[in-house]
Design a protein that fits this description.
Helices cover 41% and strands 9% of the residues. Helix 9 packs parallel to helix 12. The longest helix is centred in the N-terminal third of the chain and has 29 residues. The protein is globular. The N and C termini lie far apart (99 Å).
Length: 419
């Protein structure tokens, strides 16, 4: 009898211990903080929120950051500003040749919903883009002209913009927001070739760096005479000093790091690597950049970055005057070879662009806005007017999702709007 009682007691003890272990496992696996136990499948709830501005300029506390893909930190993706043209903010547009800069530049001066919209001047192709204090809020070809040189690059703009504005208006505190647009390198190169073939040149570009212009010894012309009209693609590719080669990487880089246009300053491989890394860094640090191949997403990202709406929707063109250019495999490979810095830069830019789009969506800043005309803004002061519009919201979100999931987006031959 005693032996039977002992067995029953042992069973009870074993059951109690088993139950404790079972419930303990559940407790520690699902309720213990994941950093301590590592068994929970739940995402930890951040204790420290961070501040951001939504697309109506309101500062918000978010409980957690959107997940950031490998390779880019939060600061590289978080681009949300309450652009205030009346408060000293200046948008500086770095316009690279044949990237769609004309298309974006015209939208900036014609239909961007700022409190004091740009007005056409009697001067050809010029707009007055000043705020109520008669101060420039846009530094671009169509607002102030080529004041820092024809198609001034990053190096020239950084050295020139502040000095120019101080001369034009009294010195005051300003915040500069650099923007640009890039293009798939093969398409951009072909577009520049066709442009030059028609007789156009940029021979009056100053190419300033470290206080002086590049010399003809450093950057000799590829042609004799006034222009290069009628140049064949093979001839265009054969000129070693052709500024079309790797144009985007060079124009976005800080050229003072490589001795400007003096190619004997550093070994070629080291010079090119520094240019590429500098271009990536400057692009990443810009307030905004777009891609010509994705103009609808470019508009979406711009509007959510600056809390400014365009009156007109951007239109993606599927055909341009380079659409009928037939390349041999040898020619295509030569273009890629001559522009391999641009190819790497564009791959980097496309990845960063996509991740910024995804980041904006995860922040839920993509709420649709009813477009407000400049007249409405002047009459009502409704710069921050933000009305929910579910139909537009669905359209925007579906467009973003479809274009980035489509295989067509990965095809290098998808050339678009020609500028």
């Amino acid at each position: 009898m005693n032996q039977l009682c002992e067995k029953k007691k042992m069973r009870v003890i074993i059951c109690v211990v088993a139950a404790l272990i079972f419930f303990g496992f559940i407790f520690f696996g699902y309720f213990c903080p994941s950093r301590m136990c590592g068994l929970s499948t739940k995402r930890p709830t951040p204790t420290n929120g961070f501040k951001y501005r939504d697309n109506i300029g309101k500062e918000t506390i978010a409980g957690s950051k959107p997940r950031v893909a490998a390779g880019f930190k939060h600061d590289s993706l978080h681009r949300v500003y309450d652009f205030d043209e009346e408060g000293g903010d200046v948008m500086v547009f770095l316009h690279m040749q044949k990237t769609g800069g004309t298309y974006l530049g015209k939208h900036l001066v014609r239909d961007l919903g700022v409190s004091v919209p740009c007005t056409k001047t009697p001067e050809r192709k010029k707009y007055n883009c000043k705020n109520a204090l008669d101060r420039e809020w846009l530094f671009s070809r169509y607002s102030v002209g080529w004041r820092c040189g024809l198609h001034a690059d990053w190096t020239e703009l950084k050295d020139c913009v502040e000095r120019f504005l101080d001369k034009r208006e009294e010195h005051h505190k300003r915040r500069y927001y650099y923007i640009t647009i890039l293009r798939e390198p093969v398409a951009r190169y072909l577009s520049e070739w066709r442009h030059v073939r028609r007789g156009a040149t940029w021979k009056y570009a100053e190419l300033k760096c470290n206080g002086r212009e590049a010399t003809l010894d450093e950057v000799p012309f590829c042609y004799d005479g006034d222009d290069w009209e009628g140049v064949t693609l093979d001839e265009f590719l054969s000129c070693d000093s052709n500024l079309a080669n790797n144009r985007q990487a060079r124009m976005l880089a800080n050229l003072t790091k490589v001795g400007c246009y003096n190619k004997t300053f550093l070994p070629q491989s080291e010079r090119e690597q520094i240019i590429l890394e500098s271009a990536k860094e400057n692009l990443k640090n810009m307030a905004f950049f777009g891609l010509l191949e994705y103009v609808q997403e470019t508009q979406y990202l711009f509007e959510n970055t600056f809390n400014l709406m365009f009156e007109e929707d951007f239109i993606q063109l599927s055909e341009t005057h380079i659409s009928n250019v037939l390349l041999t495999n040898t020619q295509r490979q030569r273009i890629i070879q001559e522009n391999y810095l641009d190819v790497q830069l564009y791959k980097y830019a496309k990845d960063l662009f996509q991740q910024r789009l995804n980041y904006i969506k995860k922040l839920d800043l993509g709420r649709s806005l009813v477009k407000v005309s400049p007249a409405e803004i002047r009459e009502t002061g409704a710069k921050d007017k933000n009305i929910e519009n579910s139909q537009k919201q669905d359209t925007v979100r579906k467009t973003i999702q479809l274009l980035w999931s489509s295989e067509q987006a990965e095809k290098p031959g998808a050339f678009n709007a020609e500028q």
